[in-house]
Amino acid sequence: MRIYLFLYIILKGLRVSRTSDIIYKFIETSWITKEDFNLALNASFKNSFCCNIYLHDTTLEISQLFKKFIDNYPYEYSLNANTYDCKAYFLLGSTEEEILDDLKKIPTFISSTEILIVVNDYIKINSSVFDVTIYGNANANVITKSGIWSLSENYLSPRIFHRIDNYEKMKRDDEKVNFHGRQLRASTFYRPPVSYLNRTTIRIIDNVEEEIFDADNDHEKDGIEVKLFLLMAEKLNFTWIIKKSEDRYGWRYNKTTWKGGFIKLLHDNKIDIAFASIWLNRNHYDFVNLTEPWYQVYIQFLVPRPQPITSFWALTRPFSVTVWILLVLAIFSQSICIYAHARLNPRYPERFRSFLITFIELTGRLLGSWAPKDMVSVKLQLYLWQTMGLILVTAYSSSLAAKLTNSEYENRIDTIKQFLEADLIWGTKTIPSFANFIDYEDPYLSQLPNTHRVIKNKEEIHKNIVKGNFAILGNFVGSVFFPEDEIYNIDLKRYRMMKEMTGKFYASFLAQPWLLTPINKMMLRLRESGIITFHLHDVLRRRASFNLREVLVEYDGKDGSIRVLTLTPLGAAFFLLFVGLSISTLVFYFEIKYKNNSKSIRQILRDIDRKRRSYSISIGKKQL
């Protein structure tokens, strides 16, 4: 009777004519229910929106399990084909050999890979399916008739399969990340303001001598990214050692090879994480994984400051060249006009019949230094001339006082075009990847690589700076400029920051694939909470020197700020005064000789002295 009742329940709602449907109904009540299967899918594929399915067995029980997947999975899927964009993989089989063959087709080195394995059989705990090495950085869950297993998080070492007693426990709590004290291998180098680590010691790690940063005091354990790294270590509960990168970032040798630096170390799995203001770009991403950026950094040049211009012709600065030419032409034109009238009109003063005297008098009247009373027939003309002279002299004197009390400077170098026109060169200790920050379609930026030089040390940088045609490459972080290489502070006094930006990039960390998710989440929280901004401003406030801030200050008086007038050496003015005094002395000498029939100057002075004495005696007698 019980058997008949059970068959009645099974056959209810089914078409009795289809024997296969009756068998499916029996199988549906097998070792995994529809609800449990749905829980397994949701727990295993939390971050995927498509799925790759590997299925080779076509037995009725496998087919029914596959039907459960179809009924419960809401997104697209592909069968026995690897769609690289899909990070979810569902492996369904009856034997572990089938599963192991399919696992070889999965890119397990990608940390975002999610694997769900369903084996329609009993398997032992020592089965090869539980070999954690074949799963790489992927997250995996295994369901068999023997039980349920979940692989530990990919950031833990060693990874193990945990047996769980229900499908609810398959869910991973990504919000609570705990490395349980795992030691991470990090790498960086001395690069202000992100890392001030400098002192190292030699240690033996895995039978290899490594140069490790001591970082045993807070003053050295400083820098924006160092502070962020230490904060991550505290919150994620991991320990660390920091290796020094001798070749800094290293360099790309060809499309498939990277040489030197911590990018090579991370690519070879010799470190887990690296930081030193690493550019987030395709060139790096082709070899290693980059985290979410923490800040945007700008690439700028320091260029020589404009120097004061000193010239004898500084006295001509109040008027432009055009004004001076027009002024000379006006004097000549007026002289010719009066000279011609004096020749034709006898009523004109006789002195105007000499062109030289006319020219000298008009020049003197224009300057306000000569005003003869005899102006018959030319009174109005000369009055207007003297009025114009008064206006010109007033304008010249006012402008001269303003210009000579402030130095005139060379033009600023604020664009790449001006950079090239000034024949500047620039250099770094290593050859940078120009394509990362130079737009080769720009006619001026594309010429920058031709002006680059490889610099050995800061002494060589100093020698180039002394020559006066050297520009300094660096990064503008926050509100402070930091040179790419070390430079003497005294050399920075000669430089200012060029206005035009050469390039910009986002700074991020390098990390192994299994570290990306926890580091990215920490980076997001630090950025949203303002902690990154706090450490940025704090480090710049404490460690940025006065000279680094001074490169933003302009001293050529073109910034619109109010400046106190200060007299500058007027060598040209005093030289001109000396020339005028010499000429007047010479004229006076010849006038005296002319009036005294070419007597010697000594005799003339004696005669003048004798006459002065006799005049004094005569005055004295009259008073008596």
From TrEMBL:
Its main location: membrane. It holds the Pfam family Lig_chan-Glu_bd. It is a multi-pass membrane protein. One of its GO terms (cellular component) is plasma membrane. It is found in: Cell membrane. The chain crosses the membrane at residues 570-592. This is Glutamate receptor U1. It comes from Vespula squamosa (Southern yellow jacket).
